[in-house]
Design brief:
This protein has helices at residues 14-29, 84-100, 122-131, 139-163, 170-181, 185-188, 221-234, 266-279, 285-302, 352-370, 377-392, 395-414, 424-433, 440-445, 448-468, 491-498, 502-526, 541-553, 556-567, 587-590, and strands at residues 2-8, 36-38, 45-54, 69-70, 82-83, 189-191, 218-220, 235-238, 254-261, 263-265, 318-328, 333-342. By secondary structure, the chain is α+β, with helices and mostly antiparallel strands. Helix 1 packs across helix 7, helix 8 crosses helix 9 (285-302) and helix 15 crosses helix 18. The protein is elongated. The two termini are 48 Å apart.
Amino acid sequence: MRNKFCVPCTTGTYADTLTTLGLAKLLTALGGTEIRIQRSLNSAYYQVSSETPIPDATQTPFQHLFPRILTNGEPSTSAADIDYEYEKAKRNKYFKWKNENRTVKPEMLGEGEAPEAPRRDYTLISSLVDMLKPIAGSSYIKTAEALARGSFGRYVEAALEGFASLDGDPVRIEARLKQSFGKQKGELRTSVVQIFNPMAGKGMNASKPNSIGMGGLESPIPIEMLKFSGWWSGAVAATPRKPKAATPRKPKDLKVLVIAPQDINYGMLESVMSAFREAFYGGGAVQIDVLASLGLTEVLLRNHEAVPSRRGRPRHVIAGFNSAYFKNLGNAKGVSNISFIGLPDWVEVRDDSDRQLWLEVLREHKSILSRLDESRSEAHSLLEQYRDFLSLGLLEHFLEFLVDYGAYALAVADRNEPIQWFTTNLLRRVFMGLDNDTGSLSEILGNPGFQNIARAIRLSTRGALYARKPPVIEGQPPKQPDRTYEVRYGLAQELKRKAVYKSEFAAALAGFISEYMTENLRVADRTSPERPLPQRPAVTTTDLEQVIALMDKHDPETVAMLLIAYGYAKEPRDADEPLTDDLPQDENMIEGDDDQ
C-alpha cells in the first residue's frame, strides 16, 4: 500500500510546488490522513506522505479538485463552479460603496448596511480569466471536462503511480504515466499553461533548438491536473500598484506568488493560507514581496500549532514564496522575472512572550514598509534594500537600510508629512536574532557609551526636528515650536560615508560630539530662572572612548552603522507624527482594476 510520494523539483519554479500542493489535496480527497509535505535542505524533490495508505484509485468517483470558472453565462453544473461575472459585479459594488463611505468605521454600521465583501481569492480567479483568454477553450477548462467525463479515476491513479517512486526521478515518472495509459497518447496530454508553468512559453522550449516552432508545450494531464488544483491551495496573485500618474484604465502587470513548504501538515497549510489571504493587501512590485514574507511570518506566529513555543522558526515550516512577474505586453502578458523571497530567518520563537514581541516587530516593519511610495526613487531603493535583507538575512544589509531610512524619515518629517520611525526596543530584538549566539551585538548595544552617543544623535536630529515641529495630537492643545537646538540635517549621510574607515569615522564622530557639547554649553549659558531652556544630557570623553574600544574589539563598520541606525530610531516613549492604526488599503492595492 502506498503512503509516500515524491515530486521532483525539475523546473526550479513554483510549478513544482503547485504539483506538490495538488498531490497533497488529492491524497486528502482520497481519504488520506495527516497529509504532510516535507522538503529537506537542498533536496531535489518534495515528499508528500499520508498516515493512511492510499489504495488503488481507478474506480474513484469524480471529485472537484479545482473549480470551473464561468465567464459567458454558461449554466452552472456544480456548487464548485465560480461565476466570474457575478464575483466581479459583487467586488465592484463593494469598492464603490467603500469609496463613498471612507469615513465610516465598521463599528458604526448596523447588520446588513455594508455590501458583501469580495472573495479574498478573487485575483486567483481574475488572473486566470485574463491569462487563459478565452478561458472556455483553455487547457484548464478542457482538463476539468476530461476529468468529469468518467476518466477521473484513471487520471488520479496515473498521478499516484507516477509519483509513488521515492527517488523523485522525472524520467521514471513520465514513463509510469505513459504506461498507465497504454497506447492512448492523445488522451494523456494537454497544453501547458504559462501561468502555472512560468518557464513555459511558445517556441524554443526544447533543450536543444533542433525543431523550433511557435507551438506550445504539452504535458501529461495527471500532472497539469495537480497544478490546477494546487493553484487554489497555495497561490496568491496581485496586480502591482502603479504610480498615481499612470493611466487608470491601462491593463496591469501581474505577480504570482506560491508558497514553498518546508515541513507542514496540509490541513494546517490550508488554514494558514486562508488567514494570510484575508490579511494580505499587496502594494508595489517590490512591496508585494516584502509584505508577503512578513505577513505570512505573522500568520504562522499566530498559529501556535504551526510554530510551537519551543524554539520554533517560521522559515522551517514554510521557506518562503516562489514568484513570477508577468509583464503586460498589450494584448498578452509575458514572464519578465522569476524569483524567490524567503521568510525572515532571524525570527525564532523561544516562548510565548518572545512570540508576542516578534509579532510587534513584524507589525512595525509592515506598517513602515507599506507606507513607502514605491513610485518614488528613494522609497523604491529602500524597499529593494529591505528585500535583500529578507533574502540573505545579513546584518550589513539591514544596517544599510536603517541608516538610509533614518535620513529619509527625517526629510519626510521636515516636509510636515507623517512618517513612522523604527523603535529601539524592537530593533534590538531583530539585532539579537541576527547575532548568531555570539553575543557581540548585545555587548555593543548594552554599552553605556554607545547608548549615550546614540541618544545625542537622536536629540540632534529627530528630537530637534519634532521640537521645532511638534506633532498635533487630537484632544490636546498645540505645543509651541521650540528652536533651542539646531537640526543636524545630513548627519546620517556624513557619518555613513566615514564608517568605512575607523579613523575617519572616529574623527567625524568626535567632531559631532564637539559641536553637540558646544551647543549644550551655549544654551546653558543663555538659560535663567526667568527664561528656562531645555537642557540635553552631556556626552563625555569616556563615552567616546568606550565606542572607540568597541570598534577596536569588533568590526568597526558594524559598530559605526549600528550607532547611526540606533541613533535615528526612536525610544518607545518618544512622540511621533500621529498615524492611523490601519495599514493603507484601497481597491488598487488589494485587487487592482479589472479591465485587463
